[in-house]
């Protein structure tokens, strides 16, 4: 065990924290040393999640009782607004520790934008400036040397992997992007909420946060970086689908002059030719959540629209894996110089 990298998980009793533990438990280079969950402190992990009954894990402790001297990396799965002070404290006292944050606290580079969308002043600006946006396929080289990695949200991961190669090369009009997004109920977290009760969410599809979802500025930030603009605005509407996990984003785009839907598809093929986790589906094959469930894979494709000059870009991922915990481990692998695919090569689960 001594040659393994010791990790701690903040918020291990949430869905993203639990999926991080699930993946890390079979990672050949990871030793899970600390698990925190204030509301469940003192309990064994298997008492909170029955699917961990087969393995031995540390008992859950409070954040205050966690021994950060014992870890090399910390994965943060806490709600927004709760990670900043803890991350700052860990990095101040343990500067060699790497933090891979799965919350929204360090994703937005502009603290004014963060306050606008999350209603809080950013309390750790001194470390915010060193945070690297953790979209692995885009920022791999920066992630390799980062102490603080801000993993993207699930919706931004699906959308940005589908659209960044297109905006970067000027193939679509960035001001004409309409995104219709759908996610499983686990995206809302484990805390009880009326709209995620079985009788409320089952047998129906519900839009939510229309025109004000907090992933919008994250998508705008990164697409804006790709075209050198800070004023970009996109149309984004998420929907809740009655399934546990999975996410599908359909982006409607206007082609730039002289380009076709096939040009867009070829740009994606070229961009992801050497990427282990992004698959461009064969021509005419429509991405489906069944293609990625339980895996770190993303499937994308482009379909011509019947409206001249437009195309439809579809992307799908598992919101808890590539949309959160899997991407976090992918970034961990890069940050510690490991083979990027280590521990996250599971094929999709079907049926």
TrEMBL record:
Active-site residues annotated for this sequence: 154
Sequence ranges assigned to domain Semialdehyde dehydrogenase NAD-binding in this UniProt record: 6-146
GO biological process, one term: L-arginine biosynthetic process
Keywords linked to the UniProt accession: Amino-acid biosynthesis, Arginine biosynthesis, Cytoplasm, NADP, Oxidoreductase
Pathway in which this enzyme or protein is active: Amino-acid biosynthesis; L-arginine biosynthesis; N(2)-acetyl-L-ornithine from L-glutamate: step 3/4
Location(s) in or outside the cell: Cytoplasm
Gene3D superfamilies xref list: Dihydrodipicolinate Reductase, domain 2, NAD(P)-binding Rossmann-like Domain
Function comment: Catalyzes the NADPH-dependent reduction of N-acetyl-5-glutamyl phosphate to yield N-acetyl-L-glutamate 5-semialdehyde.
Protein's name according to its UniProt entry: N-acetyl-gamma-glutamyl-phosphate reductase
Organism of origin: Consotaella salsifontis
High-level lineage: Bacteria, Pseudomonadati, Pseudomonadota, Alphaproteobacteria, Hyphomicrobiales
């Amino acid at each position: 065990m001594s040659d393994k990298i010791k990790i701690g998980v903040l918020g291990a009793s949430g869905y993203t924290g639990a999926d991080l533990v699930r993946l890390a438990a079979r990672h050949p280079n990871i030793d899970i040393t600390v698990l925190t969950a204030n509301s469940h402190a003192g309990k064994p992990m298997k008492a909170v999640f029955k699917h961990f009954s087969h393995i031995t894990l540390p008992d859950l402790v409070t954040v205050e009782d966690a021994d950060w001297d014992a870890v090399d990396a910390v994965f943060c799965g806490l709600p927004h607004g709760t990670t900043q002070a803890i991350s700052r404290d860990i990095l101040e006292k343990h500067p060699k520790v790497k933090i891979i944050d799965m919350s929204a606290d360090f994703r937005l580079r502009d603290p004014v934008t963060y306050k606008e969308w999350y209603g809080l002043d950013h309390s750790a600006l001194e470390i915010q400036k060193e945070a690297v946006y953790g979209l692995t396929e885009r920022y791999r080289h920066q992630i390799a040397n980062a102490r603080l990695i801000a993993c993207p949200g699930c919706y931004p991961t699906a959308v940005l992997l589908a659209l960044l190669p297109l905006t970067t090369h000027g193939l679509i009009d960035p001001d004409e992007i309409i995104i219709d997004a759908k996610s499983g109920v686990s995206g809302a977290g484990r805390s009880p909420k009326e709209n995620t009760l079985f009788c409320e969410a089952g047998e129906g599809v519900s839009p939510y946060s229309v025109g004000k979802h907090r992933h919008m500025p994250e998508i705008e930030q990164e697409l804006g970086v790709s075209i050198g603009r800070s004023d970009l605005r996109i149309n984004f509407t998420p929907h809740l689908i009655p399934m546990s996990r999975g996410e599908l984003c359909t982006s409607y785009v206007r082609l730039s002059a002289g380009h076709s839907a096939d040009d867009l598809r070829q740009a994606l093929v070229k961009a992801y030719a050497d990427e282990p986790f992004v698959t461009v589906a064969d021509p005419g094959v429509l991405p489906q959540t069944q293609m990625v469930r339980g895996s770190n894979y993303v499937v994308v494709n482009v379909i011509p629209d019947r409206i001249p000059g437009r195309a439809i870009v579809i992307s799908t991922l598992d919101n808890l894996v590539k949309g959160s915990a899997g991407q976090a481990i992918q970034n961990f692998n890069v940050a510690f110089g490991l083979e990027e695919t280590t521990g996250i090569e599971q094929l999709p689960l079907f049926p």
